[in-house]
Amino acid sequence: MADKKSRSIGEMVSALERHVRLLRDYSVRAFDEGNVDFGGEIAGKLRLLVTKFGSNRPLLLDLMAATGIEPLITLGGPPVQRPPGEPSAGDKISLARYLQLPAVGIRVSPDKFVTLSKVQFIRAWAEQTGSSHEDWSLDPALAAVLGAGIYIGGLPAAFAELRVTTDTVIHVAERFLAEHYSKAEGRDI
Fold it and tell me: Which region, left, alpha or beta, applies to residue 97 given φ > 0 means left and ψ of -120 to 50 means alpha?
């Protein structure tokens, strides 16, 4: 397989379409059908699309940077008072900024609580679960998050967070693809 640096935009767009199609399928299996084994597969696809770690170059973020097409995300949710400088409900932010927002908190000891960003959460889940197709044991902190007895919208809390992030990435990818093809055809969307 050719290095991503040497692939054309067209080849990268085709790869993005394939990964998004699989991500949608995995999402249905995990969130709609309740097959939690697909959580690792989802995290693995998200890792390929939106995290930069080691030799991984995030396909969707690289395409957005290369083409200048960067659909913004409008944050939702209740109007919670955020610390100064943090985005809140109704703000429009980039996908890269969205991925830096807090995802989950993990109690690592009785007196220490660590908050992971969405990208850290994706990377940890992808590297420690079925997406690697290994039977590695989970880090105790991630195991605690995945096994927590807290439910949001009928899903375990970690899955609820993964679903929101997955839906957001799929939405941005689809908007990116629509704008990319619209520009290629020389029309505005």
Answer: alpha
Condensed to tens digits (0 to 9), the pLDDT of residues 15-31 reads: 999 999 999 999 999 98
Relative to beta strand 73-74, strand 151-152 is unpaired
For residues 169 and 50, what is the distance between their CA atoms, to the nearest angstrom? 8
The enclosing H or E element of 170 equals helix 157-184
pTM, 2 dp: 0.78
Phi, psi of 114 (to 5 degrees): -115, 135
* Dihedral of alpha carbons 168, 115, 131, 52, sign: positive
| DSSP letter for each residue of 98-141 | HTTSEEEEEEEETTEEEEEEHHHHHHHHHHHSGGG-S-PPPPHH
